[in-house]
């Protein structure tokens, strides 16, 4: 149990380092979105939440609505392909739209056309679907931002294996609402460590009490066995006085 406690302390050190790294990334100046030559090196540990920027134009006719629950309520993430000036495509989560804005006609004013620049956080793909809910490309029902599946469904090629969460820059008409990325790393490792150390102390204390009681019982047992021999028992000889053995009395007769 103490080993588990120390392991939790080590995990806490790792978690604090991760939080510091991510904090530095989201507050750093944006860098150019990685191109095809760097895609094979993109990984969650080094690149998640890295602030990036890209220039190009949106493919508004191939957008995807992904079900979402945010601090603004239930609705959808508006994920739109973005063709960069470098020739590749990256999916951009432009932000949140409420259920009553699902129809394109209700938010068409928010479409950006022509050359534009997008800034946001690099995010890893979310394959297959959400919790207990799988994406259904045939029915166009999406519960996660699965880059590969969305690219196939929207007939996109040369697509980056990640997506960008757009920042809070305002859009015409107010929708979509960007900048809603939730960055949270639960850090309860210290509580878990104290729990394991507490259980270890309780176990040691219980073992001590059991061992103490066993030793006390053992000493009392030895003491009862080594006491004085009662008068008239054993060899027939009591301390301070001779007593005839029963067999001797028979011989005298």
* Overall domain count: 2
Instruction: Specify the CATH class of the largest domain.
Output: Mainly Beta
Largest sheet: 5 strands, mixed, barrel
Radius of gyration: 38 Å
Strands of the biggest beta sheet: in what spatial order? 2-4-5-9-6
Order of helices and strands: HEHEEEEEEEHEHEEH
**Average pLDDT number:** 83
Net shape: elongated
Overall description:
With 253 residues, the protein is α+β, with helices and mostly antiparallel strands. It has two domains: 1-23 and 188-227; 33-174, OB fold (Dihydrolipoamide Acetyltransferase, E2P) (Beta Barrel). The chain has five helices and eleven strands, in the order αβαβββββββαβαββα. A hairpin with a 2-residue loop joins strand 10 (237-238) and strand 11.
Tags for this model:
OB fold (Dihydrolipoamide Acetyltransferase, E2P); disordered C terminus; two-stranded antiparallel ribbon; 2 domains; 25% strand; elongated; alpha+beta; 5-stranded mixed barrel; 11 strands; 253 residues
In short:
The protein has five helices and eleven strands. By secondary structure, it is α+β, with helices and mostly antiparallel strands.
Question: Mind sketching the topology for me?
Answer:
Elements: H1 2-26, E1 31-32, H2 44-47, E2 51-58, E3 64-70, E4 73-84, E5 89-98, E6 116-124, E7 129-130, E8 133-134, H3 147-153, E9 159-166, H4 189-225, E10 237-238, E11 241-242, H5 246-252
Parallel strand pairs: 1-2, 5-9
Antiparallel strand pairs: 2-4, 2-6, 3-4, 4-5, 6-9, 7-8, 10-11
